[in-house]
Amino acid sequence: MWQVIQQQRLAIADLLDGLTTAQWESPSLCEGWRIRDVAAHLTTVTTPPPPGALLVDVVRARGSFHRLNTLASRRRAGRPTAQLVADLRAHAASRKVPVVSNDRNVLFDLLVHGQDIAIPLGVDLPMPPEAAADGADRVWSMGWPFRAQRRLRGMRLTATDTAWSAGSGAEIRGPIRGLLLLLTGRTSAAVPLLSGEGVAPLAGSTT
Question: Which 3 state secondary structure label does DSSP give 124?
């Protein structure tokens, strides 16, 4: 797992290293987040904000974890882009885990955020199928924040490139990358990668 995390961090750093200024400022798949913000977020996992800055953000977030995450990421995004890339590379092998998280969360968060950067840029960033399957298992078992089982009730998800499936009902099949994007709410990016009778209802309500 940690080898995959290291490899993905380095791959994302390589991708970011070649971006133009306009690309850094362009929208990611994360609503309201630029490519710069997603990259900055990935660096906060291994080098969290200092306690003082974090406390300020906690107060400003008014109890919202999503708002707290956004504030911390945007604060870090003020660094030069070269520094963000250097930070990702320097700490690629780090096994630090945020106090409210675990290593499996670190894995799927990294896999998905890598796609949040790559897909809008039209770049193919490979996602290791076995690691993505572990991420899909983790997201499927979670409630908040994705509530995947509730959102996808009445659907059967089946990966075509690794041994993974979940749910029951109308079939949705495709590469595990597409399924993981779907599970984490990236529906509009996931639908073109998927097929089956369960896809049509999703296509009518993409976000």
Answer: coil
